[in-house]
Amino acid sequence: MKPKMTLKRIAKELGVSISTVSKALHDNKEISQDNRDKIQAFAKFYNYRPNNIALSLKNKKTKTLGLIIPDIVHNFFSKVISGIEHVANLNGYNVIIAVTNESFDKEVINMELLVQSNIDGFIMSLSKETLLKQDKHHLQETINQGIPIVMFDRVLHEIACDKVIVDDVEGSRIATQKLIDTGCKKILLLTTGDFINIGKLRTQGYLEALGNNNITPDSDIILKINDLGNLEKKQDNRDLERDINQIFEKVPDIDGVFAVNEIYAIKALNVARQRGLRVPEDLSVVSFSDGILSQHSWPSLTTISQHGFKMGERAASILINRLALEDEEKEFVTEIIKTELIERDSTR
Amino acid sequence: MKPKMTLKRIAKELGVSISTVSKALHDNKEISQDNRDKIQAFAKFYNYRPNNIALSLKNKKTKTLGLIIPDIVHNFFSKVISGIEHVANLNGYNVIIAVTNESFDKEVINMELLVQSNIDGFIMSLSKETLLKQDKHHLQETINQGIPIVMFDRVLHEIACDKVIVDDVEGSRIATQKLIDTGCKKILLLTTGDFINIGKLRTQGYLEALGNNNITPDSDIILKINDLGNLEKKQDNRDLERDINQIFEKVPDIDGVFAVNEIYAIKALNVARQRGLRVPEDLSVVSFSDGILSQHSWPSLTTISQHGFKMGERAASILINRLALEDEEKEFVTEIIKTELIERDSTR
DNA sequence: TTGTACGCGTTATCAA
DNA sequence: TTGATAACGCGTACAA
To answer: Domain HTH lacI-type, which positions (chains A, B) (predicted)?
Structure first.
């Protein structure tokens, strides 16, 4: 195990000073062509690479981005990470990922840890608990420290920073309209509690679509599911199926379902099967979040794609651009990623 | 935006020397109790945190782990990452993730990049292309540079390093045996090309189970699928369903399917549906890799769980232990994570 | 054209 | 009990 090449070692071996080596490697004209060639050849031969830590210490930049997400075992977030990774690498940035597991405390701790790791900026999606508590002191604090934040998907609009979001209202409107267009009259909405802004917004889109078509909303067929954890992981989410079933019991002529995420949609599919309803003949289903479940379920789900990969790409490039600007003057932007209706077999 | 607190600033404010401050903050008895109290209080008040970069420069340790994975949008890898994150954070380590997209070149480049970021060690799962080419120079090189590697799942046994794997042979044997136990006589195997060692090993387990029960293997019902990319993402994987269908055409009395991953199993489910076969009454299906698809498919899939989270945890703690040892003497270990049969609705 | 010296923030050694 | 100094690796302003 050979020790690492450094400017110092090169200098000693070649009998010149460190700064000569440094300049030569930067192809500085101050240094004679002869020496430049010699030093560069030597460095190349021994595969010299400048020490990033030393550079970081000097430049006060680590070329590292901190990424805070609620959950990594989640198709949407995985896609976002992919997108972030992609443009980060293109620009010579590394990405450190920290997972909050939807916990406010872990979000705060992770951010502090990453700040101490001297990351240059944050990309983050807030935990459910943070959204619920509406506690944003840690966010404001990091911004005050001069560390820029780009929020995506789950954002807090009161915070002055860049944001990348999906037009949840529009996406839901389109989804609901699709159901109406294919003849649905009674559309069950499966959504989250209002404290999650995406749940709230998607509910709003649903209501707007109904309004546009002069359909009176019926609170009996709006189910707000309050789960703080991660439903995908829970074994005991039978409860949800039971709740959905009860609604069908009460309102048997439901002919459409709009679910704000894939899991809810799958549950609806299961209930339909239990009740002998054919999808899409008797019941149409549209889901938000185009993930792996939608593609492989039976029947495959018509969904609203959030373009997670693209969201990640945009978030990363916005952050990297801001970091490149040095002096903070550019206005904060809120970029809206267009959603897209992907038609599959769960609708007519 | 206030400038960061440093030893130097504290020293100046308090009118003492930098080294006094440093010692006081380390509660060094050399420094008078008075001064220690004063300095510590001051530091606490101004929320002083030592600069990790400076520490890294001195210690030649970054407390950062490099993670190289083929694909992040993949349930199994996500779980492994979760496990790694978990123990890494517990031990004060950060994790930098790089994705290879199954490409050898990206694997090489990413490793070089992370080496330049001065990560302390690697955790990695090899790309399909690397397995195919059997090119391992980049692995050997990093090891020679004194950077430890822990490989998981997709490993190369010729490389001297720690490894965390699943007993693919045993898992497959158990899966196949389960099918045999429930009465299957003709079991279709859906596997990958042999160049992927997990495909090879799982095939071996299948064959062993047949042998144990005096069943003669039939090459007509062994389908080796050669995909280098990521099948999950391909739209045109209809081909696979067609191929499976053809086998059923040829061998109509197939009554069981063992698939080495979830996607293949889902495809089998689809083909069964097309052919009017009831699962599990007419056809039983067992899959490897317990992911989100297995839980939510219809019927839900009996699978072999690889315990991805645990694999990640073990890989990380093996690496962190080795890093703590400093001088390399400990023997390399190969840890085998027990698989587990998770029975769901696709088997009787 | 080359080299010296300093600073980034920290710790450790040695001198006062 | 305290402080000055060197060192980690690099870049650069300035001196030679």
So the answer is: 5-59
B8 C-beta less than 7 Å away from strand C: yes
CATH number at residue B182: 3.40.50.2300
Helix axes A238-250, A262-274, angle to 10 degrees: 60
Residue B293 near residue B339 (C-beta atoms within 8 A): no
* Residue B90 CB lies within 7 Å of the nucleic strand C: no
Question: Residues A257, A184: one domain?
Answer: yes
* Nearest in space to B188 (alpha carbons), one of B276, B231, B250, B230: B250
Same domain, A184 and A269: yes
Query: Beta carbon of A39 within 7 Å of strand C?
Result: no
C-alpha dist (Å) from residue A268 to A200, A340, B107, B177: 20, 22, 42, 34
Non-local (6+) Cβ contacts of A162 within 8 A are A148, A149, A150, A151, A315, A318, A319, A322, A332, A333, A334, A335
Query: Is residue B271 in some structural domain?
Result: yes
Which residue of chain B comes nearest to A70, CA vs CA? B82
Q: Which pLDDT belongs to residue B232?
A: 46
The answer on A76 and A40 residing in a single domain is no
Low-confidence stretches of chain B (pLDDT < 70) are: 1-2, 228-237, 326-328
> How remote is the C-alpha of B56 from its chain's centroid?
27
pLDDT of amino acid A231: 46
Residue A258 lies in a domain: yes
Interface test with A, best of B99, B296, B310, B345 (most A CBs within 10 A): B296
pLDDT above 70 for A120: yes
Residue whose CA is minimally distant from D5 C1': B19
> How far, in Å, CA of A78 to CA of B69, rounded?
13
Pick out the nucleotide with least CA–C1' distance to A33: C1
Residues of chain A contacting residue B54, judged by C-beta atoms under 8 Å apart: 57
Q: How far is Cα B19 from Cα B29, in angstroms, rounded to an integer? A: 13
- Say whether both A292 and A180 belong to one domain: yes
Partners of A51 on chain B (C-beta within 8 Å) are: 57, 118
The 10s digit of each residue's pLDDT in A276-314 is: 999 999 999 999 999 999 999 999 999 999 999 999 999
**Helix and strand element counts for chain A (H, E):** 14, 12
Q: How many Å from the CA of B67 to C1' of C12?
A: 33
Task: Please tell me the total number of residues recorded for chain A in this structure.
Answer: 348
Cα–Cα distance for residue pair B45/B266, rounded to 1 Å: 59
Taking only the tens place, the pLDDT of each residue in A58-112 is 999 999 999 999 999 999 999 999 999 999 999 999 999 999 999 999 999 999 9
CA dist A115 and A62 (Å) reads 11
d(CA B153, CA B170): 14
- B323 domain-assigned: yes
Tallying the residues shown for chain B, one arrives at: 348
Q: What is the mean pLDDT of residues A252-256?
A: 95
Full domain range(s) for residue B295: 168-306
Contact call for B96 and A64, based on CB within 8 A: yes
Task: Decide if B292 and A49 are in contact by the 8 Å CB cutoff.
Answer: no
Tally of structural domains, chain A? 3
Same domain assignment for residues B77 and B148: yes
Q: Is A72 in Cβ contact with B73 (below 8 Å)?
A: no
Per the domain annotation, does B256 fall within a domain?
A: yes
Is the CB of B55 within 7 Å of strand C?
yes
CA A119 to chain centre: 18
> How far apart, in whole angstroms, are the C-alpha atoms of residue B242 and residue B221?
14
Q: Using CA atoms, how far apart are residues A226 and A191, in angstroms rounded to an integer? A: 9
Cβ-count burial B230-254 (b if 16+ within 10 Å, e if not):
eebeeeebeebeeebbebbeeeeeb
